[in-house]
């Protein structure tokens, strides 16, 4: 696949360095340059790039205005590459930038010495972003079409089975221990996501009604600073409470707990009650927080009283954990390729045979509500 990249940067010297770094990779076919935000918008229309690399501080039209305009009118995978730290931005701007594919802060010092240190990261992010432009367009169309769609639990669902060889693959992350049946009276929903997750989480969680009867635990791969902003952003549109838990916090119904950035989050049990443990440790699947850490621990504690959901994301984090949930008798869902920004984590789970059903993201909320209602019926009986 040949990827076309548009670089919007007001410094001619930086444009040249960035362009040279990108063109050193054979999968990047061409790089177009824009000197300011106005040129960037014009060249998006004429050049039709697969990826936009965008500086925030530019003359005439700044990068924030460009990003907002393109998000509304021409969705394109955008990598923010700026000297401006997100911590210095207004809350509303931080929330907007959650929709970016990646955010890379320019290094300080001599550009010709410091920029090449980010070459590998910039190329890696650009290559993955370049593969998902069509998904961005299709996904936005699907979400718009689904806004007025009533909940449906009888739609056709894709069932997947994996080969015997894949079933026999040794889990290199963690082994699931056999434990006694859970004594907990509550159910739980656990969600894992990475690239493209913030927008997807918002579209799902804003549909969850107030008074939701069970807790939701979420691992989102995201910078620690952006986790706080994601929590604020979700609370503005959701009827349920969204919070970042503290270590040792009891898990209560009707609350969605977002993993702290830079720490793992797992479920533990004390006196037949569930609690959250957050901690720094070794990355799992190159990730901290790791979806597998949450899913595996939740499977041990909740057994078959769990719904595991794996959404859009790069890599394989969460696949082993989803398999553990399924083995314990819990229900498992993976987001379908048609709405994933990056069909990586769900695909890995499908290949392992860890998934009960595969659905587009706009149907996930229906299954969450149905799962919670089953719990309510069980309690009343």
Number of strands: 14
Radius of gyration: 21 Å
Overall pLDDT level: 83
| CATH fold group of the largest domain | Rossmann fold
Provide structural commentary.
The chain is α/β, with parallel strands linked by helices and 381 residues long. It has 2 domains: 3-131, Response regulator (Rossmann fold); 155-380, Methylesterase CheB, C-terminal domain (Rossmann fold, 3-Layer(aba) Sandwich), CATH 3.40.50. It is 38% helix and 19% strand. The protein has 14 helices and 14 strands. It has helices at 12-23, 37-47, 63-73, 91-97, 111-114, 119-130, 133-146, 164-167, 197-205, 224-237, 291-302, 319-327, 345-351, 364-380; strands at 3-8, 28-34, 51-54, 78-82, 102-105, 188-193, 216-220, 241-243, 255-258, 264-270, 273-279, 306-310, 331-335, 357-359. Strands 8-9-7-6-12-13-14 form a 7-stranded parallel beta sheet, sandwiched between helices. The protein has a 5-stranded parallel beta sheet with strand order 2-1-3-4-5. Helix 9 (197-205) packs parallel to helix 10 (224-237). The N and C termini lie far apart (57 Å). Residues 142-180 have low confidence and may be disordered.
């Amino acid at each position: 696949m040949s990827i076309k990249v548009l670089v919007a940067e007001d410094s001619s010297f930086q444009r040249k360095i960035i362009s040279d770094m990108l063109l050193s990779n054979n999968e990047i076919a061409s790089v177009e340059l824009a000197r300011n935000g106005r040129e960037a918008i014009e060249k998006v229309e004429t050049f039709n790039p697969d990826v936009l690399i965008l500086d925030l501080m530019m003359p005439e039209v700044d990068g924030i205005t460009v990003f907002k305009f393109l998000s509304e009118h021409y969705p394109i995978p955008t990598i923010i590459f700026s000297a401006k730290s997100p911590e210095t931005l207004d809350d509303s701007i931080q929330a907007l930038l959650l929709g970016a594919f990646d955010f890379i802060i320019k290094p300080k010092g001599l550009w010709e010495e410091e920029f090449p240190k980010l070459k590998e990261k910039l190329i890696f992010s650009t290559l993955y972003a370049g593969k998902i432009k069509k998904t961005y367009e299709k996904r936005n169309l699907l979400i718009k079409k689904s806004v007025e769609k009533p909940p449906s639990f009888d739609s056709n669902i894709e069932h997947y089975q994996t080969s015997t060889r894949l079933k026999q693959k040794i889990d290199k992350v963690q082994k699931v221990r056999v434990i006694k049946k859970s004594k907990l009276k509550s159910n739980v929903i656990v969600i894992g996501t990475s690239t493209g997750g913030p927008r997807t989480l918002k579209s799902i969680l804003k549909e969850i009604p107030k008074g939701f009867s069970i807790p939701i635990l979420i691992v989102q791969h995201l910078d620690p600073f952006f986790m706080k902003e994601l929590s604020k952003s979700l609370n503005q549109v959701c009827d349920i409470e969204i919070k970042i838990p503290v270590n040792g916090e009891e898990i209560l119904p009707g609350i969605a707990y977002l993993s702290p950035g830079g720490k793992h989050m797992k479920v533990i049990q004390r006196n037949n009650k569930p609690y959250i443990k957050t901690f720094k440790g070794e990355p799992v699947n190159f990730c901290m927080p790791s979806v597998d850490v949450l899913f595996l621990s939740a499977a041990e504690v909740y057994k078959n009283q769990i719904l595991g959901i794996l959404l859009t994301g790069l890599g394989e984090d969460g696949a082993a954990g989803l398999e553990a949930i399924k083995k314990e008798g819990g229900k498992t869902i993976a987001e379908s390729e048609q709405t994933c920004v990056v069909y990586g984590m769900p695909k890995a789970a499908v290949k392992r045979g860890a998934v009960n059903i595969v659905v587009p993201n706009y149907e996930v909320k229906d299954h969450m509500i149905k799962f919670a209602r089953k719990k309510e019926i069980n309690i009343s009986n």
